[in-house]
Amino acid sequence: MTRTIRTLQTTARSICVEIGRALGTLAGTTWFSVNALMAGTRLSGVEPTDAGLPEESAWLFVFAVAAGATIWLEQRGYERIRADTTGGGAFGLLSVFYLPFAFLPAGYALAVSVGWPPAFVNMYLLGCVLVAGWLAFYGGLDRLGLEVTHFGRAFVTVLGLMVAAVVVDALFVSTLIETVVDRTWITERATRATLALAGQGITLLLGYKV
């Protein structure tokens, strides 16, 4: 009886792991498709509605493409592209959450410094998905000596810095500094970029310290 229960538990865990990997792959491919569509429309200035297509149909098409790609990968697609079949879960976390936030300060600093168009955000997120694919499916984590938890710590660090910035601005900047000095220096591009890069340095120090 005990052996049967253990077998059932092992099978249930295996099924849950497989479902998690598939969902992670679906999340990553959907995120890539969404940002590819948004980048294309912003760069070209052409919306799906301009071509006489309902906006909903464009998003359904995006999800269908992502779902088809996920099914193909699960059906021996990983082997055909020589990818790690166990990397789906890590791919989903890295592409959708960890990488976009982990390097958000540096991306913000670049955007502030050179004034990138809105499509830059989508291009940045597309790059995060591609890097996540290399890390999760092609041994990038092992080559860099990193684990998914390092990116998770960086994710938490950036969220903490964002909350701290909002609190400091609300409690000190808005109520005190602007009544004493000219606040224009705070909103200057160079100052914001410098603070963002400092935040990126803190993120790298706390998040990726092995």
Which series of helices and strands comes N to C?
A: HHHHHHHH
**Secondary-structure class:** mainly alpha
Task: Give the radius of gyration.
Answer: 21 Å
**Total strands:** 0
Question: How much strand content do the residues show?
Answer: under 5%
Mean pLDDT: 84
Spatial gap, N to C terminus: 44 Å
List keywords for this structure.
mainly alpha
Describe the protein's topology.
Blueprint: H1 2-44, H2 55-80, H3 88-102, H4 104-114, H5 119-137, H6 140-144, H7 148-180, H8 189-207
Helix pairs in contact: 1-2, 1-3, 1-5, 3-5, 3-7, 4-8, 7-8
Written account of the structure:
By secondary structure, the protein is mostly helical. Helix content is 81%, strand content 0%. Helix 3 packs parallel to helix 7 (148-180), helix 4 runs antiparallel to helix 8 (189-207) and helix 7 runs antiparallel to helix 8 (189-207). The model has no long low-confidence stretch (mean pLDDT 84).
Give a quick precis of the structure.
This protein has helices at residues 2-44, 55-80, 88-102, 104-114, 119-137, 140-144, 148-180, 189-207. The chain is mainly α.
